[in-house]
């Protein structure tokens, strides 16, 4: 799941080719979060204090969790909206009443379409 990948908690390893791609992706994410960490801790005592553990953590887990919490809705919107027909991530209806999603995208509440990203992978 994208949330697990962003937060550095993905336990799925896949085949050898996918493992190699995952290593490249993980390195890129670490580099991105290292840069974000550097930027947010340069000024401001609150953020320096919050991400103190991340100073010694090359994975930046706390920062990644916070980033996901702040950007989760936008990421899911990007995944579920403006998809080519047939590549939809979720079904076209909102509930048991059969009402259609807005442009095959979201239900009227505009909520994230899943909460699986907070369920541990081994339970999904």
UniProtKB/TrEMBL annotation:
Question: Coiled-coil region(s) at which residues?
Answer: none
Q: Which residues cross the membrane?
A: none
Which cellular component, as a GO term, is one annotated location?
membrane
Q: Which Gene3D superfamilies match?
A: Duffy-antigen binding domain
Among the GO molecular function terms of this UniProt record, one is: host cell surface receptor binding
**Which InterPro entries does the protein's record reference?**
Duffy-ag-bd_sf, Duffy-antigen-binding
Report the residue ranges that make up the Duffy-antigen binding domain in this protein: 1-124
- This chain belongs to the protein called Erythrocyte membrane protein
Query: What organism is listed for this UniProt entry?
Result: Plasmodium falciparum
């Amino acid at each position: 799941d994208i949330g697990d990948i962003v937060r550095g908690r993905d336990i799925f390893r896949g085949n050898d080719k996918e493992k190699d791609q995952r290593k490249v992706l993980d390195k890129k994410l670490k580099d991105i979060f290292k840069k974000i960490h550097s930027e947010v801790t340069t000024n401001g005592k609150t953020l320096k204090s919050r991400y103190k553990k991340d100073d010694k953590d090359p994975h930046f887990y706390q920062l990644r969790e916070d980033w996901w919490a702040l950007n989760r809705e936008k990421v899911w919107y990007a995944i579920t909206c403006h998809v080519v027909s047939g590549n939809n991530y979720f079904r076209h209806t909102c509930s048991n009443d059969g009402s259609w999603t807005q442009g095959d995208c979201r239900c009227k509440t505009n909520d994230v379409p899943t909460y699986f990203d907070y369920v541990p992978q081994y339970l999904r």
